[in-house]
Design goal:
The protein is mostly beta strands and about 110 residues long. It contains no helices and 7 strands. Belongs to the calreticulin family.
Length: about 110
Amino acid sequence: IKYKTPQPVGEVYFTETFDSGRLAGWVLSKAKKDDTDAEISIYDVMNPDDTFEVLIDQIVVNKGSLLEDVVPPINPPKEIEDPSDKKPDDWDERAKIPDASAVKPED
């Protein structure tokens, strides 16, 4: 997980927790304060309004929105725009295209 805002922590691992199929919260399970910190601490991120708080030794070091401030997003868009995508030059815009080889069946 990466944050859009720089963080004072190294690697951060998180797991999703579900309650009856519904997202109940996020738990950051492991992170180090910095590269020299050998101790692994536990951090909690648990807000039903899709916001998070990262705590190191019970001190909030970052907070934000899981939907806006996390890369990649926790809830990605259903469609991702591709700026290089384009229609072929011979694309037919008609809603219905008749099949010249089709024959109507006899009654």
